[in-house]
Design a protein that fits this description.
- This protein is α+β, with helices and mostly antiparallel strands and 365 residues long.
- Strand 6 and strand 7 form a beta hairpin.
- Helix 10 runs antiparallel to helix 14.
- The radius of gyration is 29 Å and the shape is elongated.
Length: 365
Amino acid sequence: MGRRFLFADRRRATLTVLGVAASLLLVLVLDGIFAGAVDRVTYYIRTSPADVFVSQAGVRTMHMSVSTLPADAPDRVAEVPGVAWAAPIAFASGSVAGPQGRQLTYLVGYDTRTGGGGPRALVAGRLPGAGEAILDEQAADRLGIGLGDRFTVMGMPVRAVGFSTSGSSITNTTVFVDLAEFARIHDDRVSYVLAGLDAGADPNTVADRIRTGVDEVTVQSREQFTESEARIVTDMSADLLRLMSTIGLVIALAVIALGLMTATLNRLRDFAVLKALGAQTPRLARAVAMQVLLTVVLASAVATTAALALARLLPTAEPAVQITITATAVAQTTATALLVGLIAALWPLRRIATLDAATAFRETR
């Protein structure tokens, strides 16, 4: 019955489904933009070959953090049983400038001889030497920097000899230089030590050994470090995210409630006739619920497909913006829409539920 009521007027059904889908798409895109930003910020950590990250005591993130370790920390970490290799990196926040503008950046200094702590992969060029740097390709395109061009990092001139990828977000990018070049640009400190473990070694056990063998350090697995980084980005953006999500959700739920309530009101006379013929209110409610379920499920499928298509197309126009659509976000959005839709669609049935069959027929004529 609910299916027949929904598709009796296919034009109206299509408009209702598309209206609900547009509302769901708004929520999915807002959530996806933020999730994509978190993915970009944590990309360096998530794709690192290191199993364990060592930082100054009390420092659990890279974003908006300053970590300084003793110069001998990499050697001491490398001596811990279970550690296969240890690579120091230097890390600082600043800005990068090119012919077409300026952008915030994370500057990473690493040992180019071993490659540990450097970019995951190069899409062009080679490893940097003295006075040279690797820049993310998206930032290079935005700033007008080509291979061999000179640009500035933290006010110091360098030459672009390689391009990496996936290191730029809406707000910042990433530049890689050799440790000696980092010392020239900023200072000669060691910020973090990245450690790879022997095959079969237990990360928790090795982490405990590092804490015991190296004083005043915080040791985290790659998963723990990624989670800490994502959490601080989320906390810093909480107010903006809450405002965006609230506005989007209110608009979406208002459209969904209005659309599904209207769908029930348009069929109120039909429900009155059915009640006059002997249908009980619970049966009518089940028909309305089925109509809402079909509408929301179809709308969710349309919205998810559109969101996934947008996630693929948007980076071609704006590479720094990434939309990440997760199954959890789709499920939560669909469940919320279904709950609101059921309440809104069932509300008009109160007029029929409180009347006898004959009166209900007359009231809706």
